[in-house]
User: Fold this.
Amino acid sequence: MRIVVCVKEVLDPDAVNNYAVAGRLEIGDDGKTLTQTAIPRLMNGFDEQAIEAALRLRDAGADFTLAVVSAGESPEKLLKHAAALGADEVVAIQVDPGSLDYHLVAALISAQIEASGGADVVLCGRQASDDDQGVVPALIAERLDMSLVTIAKAVELEGTTLRITRVTPDGDERVETACPAVVTITNELGDPRYPTAAAKVKARRVKPTTVTPDDLKLDADDLAPRVSVTRQFVPEVQGNCEMLQGDSPAALADALIEKLRADSII
Amino acid sequence: MSQNAVIVCTWGEDQDGLPVGAEEVLHIGRGLAADLGTDLAWLVLGALPSAAPETAGRYGVANLLQVEDAKLESPQPDALVAALAAVAGERSPRALLFHQTQASRAVAPRVAGRLGDAVVMNGVSADLSGECIVVTASAYGGDTRVVYEVSGRCPVIAFIANAVVPEPGDGAAVAAEALSVDLTGVEERVKIVEPARFEGPRLDDAEIIVSGGRGLGSSDNYKLIEQLAAALGGLPGASRPLVDDGWVDSSQQVGLTGRITRPNLYVAIGISGASQHMAGCSAAKTLVAINRDAEAAIFQYAKYGIVGDALELLPELIRAAGAR
Ligand SMILES: Cc1cc2nc3c(=O)[nH]c(=O)nc-3n(C[C@H](O)[C@H](O)[C@H](O)COP(=O)(O)OP(=O)(O)OC[C@H]3O[C@@H](n4cnc5c(N)ncnc54)[C@H](O)[C@@H]3O)c2cc1C
Assistant:
């Protein structure tokens, strides 16, 4: 059995939030990219949890090869982390992120999966914390003709059947599907583990397999971008708050409830 | 129906006889179709919502299309994707529009994948630039907006339409037109073994929500949030850390990856106001923020604010809300 986890490098979303809150989030001269070079780059949190989901399958006794794939400019750092966690293969698909659209990412990853022995399970984060799109897993499922289960918080494998708990607006749902399948992981899965110090040292020597779009022999239609970013901007927030005053918690509480009653909100 | 229409795609029906978000997306679709000089159509998969014909008239829908099939009775993804791709193949629409829900989030990109067409999620608006449809979408949880140019025949676009204020007109009701699609070969590949058990009212529909965040300090204090929500006749919600730490059920998480709410009143207590949280509550008509940090981002979104300690204020708020 072979499990492939797809990971993406993103700007640390907490750092982006901090800049945004401070009103210092800025877009560069190209009109598209954030200028803050000080923001650390790290593995998308949901993708880290997708690796964790695979490791839990291994803990539960499943026997498989674990491959971790990333498409981007220089995913080496992420891939070393994946190797330290126990990935057997780490693959970097080297592309200029500026030219990437979601179809192309899905085409590259799908072609790489097919060229390297296929996959019984493809695990992805539910969405990337930068663009929040969350469409690549579905596009991979379509390309590879796999079933798709989204927003999973627990994944079990029994033979070639996946038993999955999904988080839905109406509470948890239990589903089953046969491999091959694409499964997207949500934060409710819980904290991902850290690699041991020894594994980290060992992973330093790991060299990811590097492939380029040329190696994957995509056709012109696959390579044609369908979506391109023309602009990014920081939306303005109104900021029109009436601060209530009072010399005790009781007075403040009364002031608020009175306001809400006067506005007929309650 | 003419080819090249902008098609709003829905399934299911809410209490008010319409699919959730249908009016908002019809509103967006009407504008886009007008810009493109083409018709607006509404494609219903499965049972026709009772208010669909009148609503279609009010938003200038030229064709109300319905695909009925046993496999769409309680629509599952494989049947939906197959039906949508078949209709798109037959009718060559100019765009397929969806209201973004957890279900459409899985279905819409698969349709785009099957058609080989562009897909954009988290849309907040759509315009025309020359021949090209341009979608403005939320990114970084709402910290930024990205403007995407979508090329190709039939882009698939999902909107987070809770901030849209739909403006119905007064057109006459539109009769539904049946479309037949062959779904005989479609088998759902994912089997539901244990359905989600819907318990009680949902945050998505709540008029009043009181949410607590990490500022509550400990899980025990969350009961004060529940008490205040009850005193105000609303529902309790939470920010993500409370879900991650197991204080509350994930169905109570408000935000980008939780519930997208639009209540009359949203009271945020001990919540900093990160964009990913605000994505689920900034459409509230009135937002009240209670935080001990006067600089907290949440105050930028609030109508009324109190700088103070949540644990001191909550008992007083419960008392004041209960007193008449
Ligand atoms: C991809 C992604 C998706 C996400 N999705 C969501 C989502 O759907 N929903 C969500 O909520 N978050 C989401 N987050 C997390 C989000 O970025 C924030 O980390 C989170 O919302 C912070 O929660 P908080 O405000 O409760 O905690 P904090 O940010 O820690 O804020 C706590 C606040 O409480 C105040 N406080 C402390 N003590 C007191 C006191 N005694 N009295 C009053 N105030 C006090 C502090 O001043 C502070 O403002 C997501 C993040 C990412 C990266």
Observations:
- Chain A touches chain B through 83 residues (CB under 8 Å).
- The first strand of chain A starts at residue 2 and ends at 6.
- Residues 130 and 195 of chain A are 25 Å apart (CA to CA).
- DSSP finds eight helices and 13 strands in chain A.
